[in-house]
Amino acid sequence: MEKPEENQGPAASDPTQAASPEQKLAELEAKHAEMADAYLRAKAEVENTRRRSEEEMSKARKFAIESFAESLLPVKDSLEAGLAIENATIEQLREGSHATLRQLSAALERSKVLEIAPLAGTRFDPHQHQAISVVPADQEANTVVAVLQKGYLIADRVLRPALVTVAAPK
User: Fold this and answer.
1) Which residue from 118, 123, 109 is spatially nearest to 161, judged by alpha carbons?
2) pTM higher than the cut 0.70
3) Partners of 144 in beta bridges
4) Does residue 4 or residue 121 have the better pLDDT?
5) Residue 95's Cα: distance from chain center in Å?
6) Enclosing H/E stretch for 55
7) pLDDT tens digit string along 122-147?
8) For helices 90-110 and 66-84, angle between their N-to-C axes, nearest 10 degrees
């Protein structure tokens, strides 16, 4: 049975100890060059990612309205077609106007633009309604009496509040 060797010292257990200072310096310089290269590559990647995201945001802002505009084109076509009819009767004009209004309403709904048209007796909501006047009425105070102009929401955000008259306190 062999005995483990004793007193070999730190140089035998750690190969870097046996290396000369010049070798150590060369190894450290190589590691530094490798790290510097990795840093520059990472920095360039971050810059490219930032530039790409800025370009995408710019395009998103520029073309955000594209689908909304596409949904309004049939409405414009319908209006132009109605105006092109020379001797249209009032009934034809009325029917065409209703059809065009339905097209416009559908286009707005597809773009998440929804009407705010509270029914009479609905509680006044200052976040969605704008009170034009307070009138005496035979209903609970601070409720909508009449809608003077519809309001609109876009994706749960008030685009325009509904103009309403509100019941006065008794």
Assistant:
1) 118
2) no
3) 166
4) 121
5) 37
6) helix 21-63
7) 999 999 999 999 999 999 999 999 99
8) 180
